[in-house]
Every structure is written in C-alpha cells, then in structure tokens.
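Q: Please design a sequence for this.
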C-alpha cells in the first residue's frame, strides 16, 4: 500500500489572501529599487499595525496575481495586474505601457497606503526600512527655457507641480518616474517627458549648444519636443517661420482631422489650424504671432475651441475616451473597426456637420471606400409606352452609374464602383429595392425603362412620393381597367371580313382591341380548332381604322404557310399579302409598306433577320409561338430582334413542358412583364416546377392573366360544331422534293409518249406511278429506291410535333393507307418513348389494342392502317384524328374520322388532314371538293385500273 501513498497530495493547497481579511492586518504598497539595476519595483505587503496605526513586523509579501482571483471588481483587478507588471523584471526597458500601469496604481482604487523603501536602514523590507509617502497629482507641465550665454544657448528644465513652479535645482528625481517633493511623490505624467527628465538628470539640469549648431538642434530636436512641452525662447531668438502665424493667412480657426495608418491601425490626428500654422490639438506646441512692432510674441491657443473639438471627436467611439489617458498626440482604431461602415459614416457626418475637414481617408492602404453615405433619389416619369425611372445614388460629389449599380446588385455586392475610383457602400435596405427595380426594367441611356405592361410592379415597388402625377393617374387607370376585370368594350366586326365570327371569336376580337388600346401585347391561346386565325385576320382588318401604316409581320411554321395564305384569301381577300419563302424571295423591306401582311416562316426569319430587324411593323404575330419557348434558340433570339408597335403570340399550347415556355412567349409579346430570365427562374420557375409552391403559381397566374386569352373547346362547346375539319400543309424539304420531281417527270414523260388508247393497256404502270408519287409525299423511304436520295419526311416531322404538343391533354388517332408509313411513325414514337398501339392487317389481337387505347391513360396514340381499321371500330377516347395521306374517295377518310366521331363521344373532335403542297395530294383535295366526276372515276381505278380516264385528266394531277 505504501506505493499508493504517492497518489495523495504532499501538502495542503495554499489559500489565497483575501483583500477583505478581518483583524488588524493591513494591505499596503511599497515602492523600492532593485539593488543592482536601479529599476522601480512595486510590491504588496500585509502586516499588523500598532494602536497608533504604524506598521509592525513581520511584513508578509503578497502576490498581486493571487488577489485577482479574490475579487470581481474590475478596477481592483487592473490595480493588482499593474502592480505585478513592476515585479520580477528588473532589466526590462521602460515602455509607455509601464507608465500606463503606474497611472493605474496611482489611482489607488482600494485606498491603500503607500511607502517607499529606505535601503540605508536595511536592505530588507521591514517595518523600520519603509517610509510613508503620499501620491500627488501627475506632473504633466514641464517646460524648457532657452537662454543666450555667448557663444552658447543654454537649456534648463522647469516644472509646474500642483500649481507651483519649480526650477531644476528644486527637484529631486525618484525611481526615474517621480519628482520627490517633501513627503509626496509626483509621477511624471507623460512617457516622453520621462526621457527628457532623465536626459537633464544626466547633464545636471543644463544643456549647452553652440550657436553654430543651434538652428539644426532647433529643427531636429526642439520642434519635435514642442509637441510634449513648451519651449520658451528669449526675445532675441525667434521661433522657426513655420511656427509663426503669418499676416494675411486668416484669423479664423479651422478644424482638421488627418487620417493615416500605422500597421493595422488607423491614426486619427485632430489638428487646429490657426491661419497658416497647424497645431495638433493633443500636443503642447506653442503658437507665435508677430506684433505691430515686428516682434514675435507667444499667442495663447484657443483652449475652449480645442477642448470642444476633442469632445466632439471622442463622442464617436468609446475607445477614444480611454485613449485620452495615453501620451499619444493622436487617437487610433484598428483598421477593421474603423472601416465598419456604420461607424465611419456616422462619425464623418457628425464631424463634417461641425465644419471639420477630413484628409487621408482614401490614402489608407487597401481602402477604396468612399467616405460619404449613399443618398438615394428616385423619380418615376411616364413615356410613350414605358415608365422612366431616374435613379440617383450619390456619394458626396460622386454619383454611381446605373450600369455599375446593376452590376453590384446582381452580384449581391454592397460596394459600387464610382467614377473617381472609390467604392460607394450601398445601404442594406436599398440593395434589395434596387434589385427589384432592375428586375422590372432595363437600362437605356442611364435611365431605367419599365414597360407599362409591367405597371403592377411599378405600383408595388415605388413609393408614392417617387411617382409624378401622370404616372399616378396612369397606374390608377391600368389598375381599374385591367386588374379588376372591367367590362371590355365591344367592337364592330370589320365589314371587309368575309365570314361570321362566333360569339367567343367576337370576344377574342374585343380583347385584342382592348389590349391594343393600352399598347399592350398578349397571347391568344385558344384551343386548336377554335379559329384563332380568323380572329387575327379580323383584328388586322380592324387596325385599318386605328393606324396609318398597317404592315404586320406574321411568322408561322413552314407547314402553315399555305394554311394562312388560304385563310387570308378566304376570309379577307382585300388584304394584300407578301410571302417571304423559297430561294427567290424578296430580301429587302423596300415594298413592305404596300402590304398589310408579310408572311414568313421561322426558318426564313432566322435567315432574313439581318434586314427584317430594321423595319418597324405595326404588329408582329407569331403563330404556334411555342416554337420560341427555348430562350436560347435562334428562333427566340431572332424574334426578340424584331421591332413593332406591338406583338401577339398565337398558340394552342402556351405551356408544354414547364413555366419557362410561357416566359419565353410573354417576354416576346409583353417585354418586361416577367423580368429577367434569372429573376423569373428564381421567383417562379424553380418554386413552381421543382417545389410545387402553390403561392408562387397563384401569383404568376394573377400577373399574366390580363395578357393571355385562352378558351378551351369544353368552355365554348355550345358554340362549336361537334366535328372540326382542317388541313395542315407539310412542305417537303429539298431532298424529298427532288425525289418527287424525279418520279413525277418519269411519269409525265411516259404519259406524253403514249396515246389515250394505250392508257388502259398500261394502267398498272400509270397506277404504280401515281402511287409512288403519293408515297414520296409521305416519305421517300417507302419506295426503297437507291436512286432516290434522302429519307426526310415533312409529314412525320409535323405529325410528331403535333403529337408531342397534344398528347398530354388529348388522345390521338393516326390513319394511313400505307403500313410502311405507320412503321416509320412507330419507329419515331419508340425513339421518343411515347406509348402507342398499332393496328394493321397483320394485328392478331385487335380487341386488346382497342381496349388498351380506350382504357389505358398512358396510351395516347393509336396508329391504324386505313384498310384494317377504317371501319367497325369504336374509338371514342380520341378527340384528335390525323389523316396522314388523302384518298381519292373522301368517304373513306370520313369513315376513319368516324371511329372517334360517333355515338358515345362527349368531346369535340378535330380532324386534321396532312397535305404536301405542290403535289398530287393537293390535286386530290381539290378533286374531292370540286371535280366530282373525275374523282368518281379515280375511285374506280382501284378495281378497274384507270378505265375511262383520259390522258389529259391524268396529266392534270401532275405539275405540268
């Protein structure tokens, strides 16, 4: 067990002495000198006292650091720590910190008695070797007197202590820090003065300088010393000229603060200017003036003004008050604290308001900040179809440009670059406001331009006092008329319209005219088949009475060029239309003023944008405007370059994939309504599409509702026919057209070389030729002829585009007479992962295919051969029917359409025929509508091999 005794403590822990110990024990301070190094040492002792209050032996030394653990009083802790600084460090050089510690001891917060050691009695600290002493006020008023004693100038030191003046001979230096007068010690209150006193002590109180060296001595020694104690010159010796106020330099006082840096600190040096002479306020430097007789006289400094100056300065930071106790001629702050914007802005404003000039702020290393707080002034005025916001953000005499403000705000940077190279600091409360301002408009000529269509944002973002009177009136009007669903005034249908508008179509015309009155654009987004084209045509006719130059650009998919040509000819033959398409098209705007519609395709728009962008149209209409939904696409970029009085997007599917679809279209039709791409993505797209934030969805819907008109077939069902039939033209590409032209020429040449009588003998060859032409209209791949190059199919491209845009909301039937064509479509659907069913003559499980299409929500497309499924099927789940290739007998097509349009169908059915213009298919459609007799003959050819058809009639089917 003896080994384990080592675990036990060897002695009891020491108990620190408490400054509140009771009894006659007294704690006191003893000042002494180290025996060999003669440095000041200060110690604490504790001892009993006699009845007379005198210290008696034994004296117990106390560690001051132990006492710091026994008190929570901050002043006591500082006192004990200061005492500890003067112990066990006899060789250390004197520092300003030592004097600060000594001043803390002299304050004596515990009211302890002070003694000094008399080594003549005993080298040890005992009761008989210590003498009581009083600590007097600091001795801070010393002066050097210069006297002439040819050929020398003699310098002596005088001190004013406790209100009395003393010559050097009257003074006794104690421990290098004190003047010892009687029973009182007066600490020298300035560290620099301690060095002066020590130097004079080494020279026995007298310094002699030969007159030949005095000027240099004055410049290098006396003038710097004058910051800490007055230098008193004889009348025969004038101060240096820079110390004398020169006549004519002004009698007023000027307060100045010089800023500089020292390491990681900023130096703040307050200076009072008396005419041409600068006096650092925290120095003892004297001021001189020349009297009327030309003699130099000492002039008293304006102490009240300088004291007020200091008071104003120290109020700006708590550290400055503490620094008043040090011996520096300046104040200081760590650079990081100094540059805290809330501090130096407030301090500078207070100082400058009091007439204080500040120098050196921008010379601080690494500091490019502007010293002025931002002053923001905003005024919103009204323009033609925009609001103009004048934003002035000033920093003193510097004003930030809008582009640099926008750059800072976009990067969430509170610093904005100014013209003089400094950085202005944007107030936190303005960064978010400015970000919203910039989002709502764009910078043009150093003004922020916000389209009036974005009036709701202007009303929300800007305070009332920022808006001028016309802006307030317009905002009130827009709010009343647009955001409150006010009644839209009805307009008369233009007399030049060759057709009747259904009620909802007339409402569409009213709406187009309504937003036109405000110079706002929008999206006409009615369902397919509701007659958007006739509404646009009627609106163009209506524009004749509203504008002088009614030239409008209509951009459509290539497949709809012919549809629009037919629609315009059908409903408004008085409209003069110019089509820009094909290689031989017009490639300038010279004749545009002669036309009301310039019709072109998206592809041609991209090619011709170089000249189209320089013409200002009345309106620009984009049909199937979902074509510009990708804002990175060439189509979108080209469309945004176009100029017009207004713009309308036309689409049956404004949103196909996500909210960015509608952003792209509205940023074209209603520039500025939804802000920048980044803003829209952050505020709407990501919250809605990714996180399904309902609040943002409702907010977006409310914002865009006035500018989108959408009616579905279900909403206007009572006005619709149960079945809507339309033609969609699919122009062939170059390779497909070349293949068609080659086969057509072969057939035409063959027919030219035979007589009418020989046709019946060669009926199989003729029929094969006609069939080949019809197959090429679908796809050259159906011929499997190596001589015919190209595998492109305009119909497949169009059909897939329609399927991708419609299949989400609708089920679709696709009919073709050619199984090979269905297989090509099948391959494309599989490549796009679009579920479908296929029904041909080879399909064994017909009932399963029909059941799946009718009942499975995921099956949106049914591919059917006209022969296998043209009759007998009930496919009422579908409401869109596409006839890929026309047949001579329209009844066959109608039977196919009736697979969907039959009893049990609760939806309106849209039937679309895909026709390749400039081909035999276009002739077939015309035959179906007009030449009934020839059509009937051709119908029989399926069985009678062209009996009864003349050579001329067959040639009429070709492009002769």
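A: Design:
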């Amino acid at each position: 067990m003896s080994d384990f005794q080592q675990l036990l403590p060897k002695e009891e822990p020491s108990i620190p002495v408490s400054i509140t110990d009771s009894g006659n024990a007294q704690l006191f301070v003893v000042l002494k000198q180290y025996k060999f190094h003669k440095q000041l040492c200060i110690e604490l002792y504790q001892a009993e006292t006699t009845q007379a209050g005198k210290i008696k032996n034994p004296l117990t030394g106390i560690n001051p650091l132990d006492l710091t653990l026994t008190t929570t009083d901050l002043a006591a802790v500082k006192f004990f720590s200061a005492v500890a600084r003067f112990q066990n460090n006899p060789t250390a050089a004197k520092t300003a910190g030592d004097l600060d510690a000594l001043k803390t001891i002299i304050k004596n917060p515990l009211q302890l008695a002070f003694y000094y050691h008399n080594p003549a009695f005993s080298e040890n600290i005992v009761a008989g070797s210590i003498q009581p002493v009083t600590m007097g006020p600091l001795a801070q008023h010393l002066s050097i007197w210069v006297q002439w004693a040819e050929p020398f100038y003699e310098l002596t030191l005088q001190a004013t202590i406790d209100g009395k003046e003393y010559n050097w001979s009257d003074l006794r230096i104690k421990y290098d820090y004190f003047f010892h007068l009687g029973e009182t010690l007066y600490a020298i209150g300035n560290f620099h003065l301690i060095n002066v006193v020590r130097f004079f002590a080494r020279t026995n109180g007298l310094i002699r300088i030969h007159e030949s060296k005095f000027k240099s001595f004055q410049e290098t020694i006396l003038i710097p010393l004058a910051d800490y104690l007055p230098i008193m010159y004889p009348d025969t010796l004038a101060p240096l000229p820079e110390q004398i106020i020169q006549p004519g330099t002004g009698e007023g006082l000027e307060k100045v603060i010089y800023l500089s840096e020292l390491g990681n600190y900023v130096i703040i040096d307050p200076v009072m200017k008396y005419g041409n002479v600068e006096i650092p306020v925290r120095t003892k430097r004297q001021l001189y003036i020349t009297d009327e007789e030309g003699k130099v006289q000492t002039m008293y400094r304006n102490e009240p003004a300088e004291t007020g100056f200091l008071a104003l300065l120290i109020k700006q930071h708590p550290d400055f008050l503490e620094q008043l106790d040090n011996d520096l001629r300046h104040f200081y702050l760590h650079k990081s604290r100094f540059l805290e914007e809330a501090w130096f802005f407030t301090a500078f404003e207070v100082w400058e308001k009091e007439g204080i000039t500040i120098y050196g702020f921008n010379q601080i290393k690494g500091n490019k900040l502007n010293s002025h707080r931002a002053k923001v002034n905003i005024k919103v005025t009204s323009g033609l179809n925009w609001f103009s916001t004048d934003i002035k953000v000033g920093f003193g005499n510097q004003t930030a440009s809008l582009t640099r403000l926008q750059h800072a705000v976009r990067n969430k940077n509170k610093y904005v670059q100014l013209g003089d190279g400094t950085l202005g600091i944007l107030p936190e409360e303005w960064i978010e406001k400015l970000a919203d301002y910039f989002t709502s408009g764009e910078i043009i000529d150093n003004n922020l331009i916000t389209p009036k269509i974005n009036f709701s944002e202007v009303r929300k973002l800007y305070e009332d006092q920022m808006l001028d009177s016309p802006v307030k009136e317009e905002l009130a009007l827009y709010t009343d008329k647009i955001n409150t669903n006010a009644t839209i005034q009805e307009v008369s249908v233009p007399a030049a319209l060759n057709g009747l508008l259904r009620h909802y179509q007339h409402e569409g015309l009213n709406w187009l005219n309504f937003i036109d009155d405000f110079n706002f654009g929008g999206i006409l987004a009615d369902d397919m088949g509701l007659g958007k084209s006739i509404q646009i045509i009627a609106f163009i006719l209506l524009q004749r009475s509203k504008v002088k130059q009614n030239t409008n650009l209509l951009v459509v998919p290539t497949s709809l060029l012919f549809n629009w040509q037919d629609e315009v000819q059908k409903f408004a033959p008085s409209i003069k239309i110019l089509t820009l398409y094909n290689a031989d098209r017009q490639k300038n705007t010279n004749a545009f003023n002669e036309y009301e519609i310039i019709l072109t395709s998206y592809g041609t728009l991209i090619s011709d944008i170089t000249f189209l962008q320089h013409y200002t149209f009345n309106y620009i209409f984009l049909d199937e405007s979902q074509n510009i939904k990708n804002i990175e696409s060439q189509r979108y970029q080209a469309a945004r370059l176009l100029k017009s009085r207004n713009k309308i997007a036309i689409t049956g599917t404004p949103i196909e994939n996500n909210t960015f679809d509608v952003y792209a279209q509205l940023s074209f039709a209603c520039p500025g309504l939804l802000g920048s791409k980044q803003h829209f993505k952050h505020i709407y797209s990501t919250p809605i599409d990714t996180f399904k934030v309902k609040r943002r969805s409702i907010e977006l819907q409310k914002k865009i509702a006035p500018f989108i008109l959408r009616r579905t077939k279900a909403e206007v069902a009572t006005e619709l026919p149960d079945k809507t039939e339309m033609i969609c033209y699919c122009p062939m590409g170059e390779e497909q057209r070349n293949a068609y032209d080659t086969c057509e020429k072969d057939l035409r040449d063959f027919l030219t070389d035979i007589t009418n009588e020989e046709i019946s003998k060669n009926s199989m060859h003729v029929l094969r030729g006609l069939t080949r032409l019809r197959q090429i209209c679908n796809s050259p791949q159906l011929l499997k002829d190596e001589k015919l190059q190209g595998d492109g199919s305009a119909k497949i491209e169009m059909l897939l585009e329609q399927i991708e845009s419609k299949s989400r909301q609708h089920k679709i039937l696709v009919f073709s007479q050619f199984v090979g064509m269905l297989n090509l479509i099948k391959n494309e659907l599989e490549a796009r992962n679009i579920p479908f069913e296929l029904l041909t003559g080879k399909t064994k499980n017909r009932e399963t295919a029909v059941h799946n299409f009718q009942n499975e929500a995921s099956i949106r497309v049914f591919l059917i051969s006209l022969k296998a499924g043209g009759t007998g099927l009930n496919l009422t789940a579908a409401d869109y029917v596409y006839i890929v290739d026309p047949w001579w007998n329209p009844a066959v097509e109608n039977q196919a359409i009736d697979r969907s349009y039959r009893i049990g169908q609760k939806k309106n059915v849209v039937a679309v025929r895909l026709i390749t213009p400039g081909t035999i298919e276009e002739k077939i459609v015309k035959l179906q509508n007009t030449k009934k007799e020839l059509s009937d003959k051709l119908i029989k050819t399926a069985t009678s091999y062209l009996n009864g058809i003349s050579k001329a009639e067959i040639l009429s089917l070709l492009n002769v």
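Q: Thanks. Anything notable?
A: The chain has 32 helices and 41 strands. Residues 26-135 form one domain.
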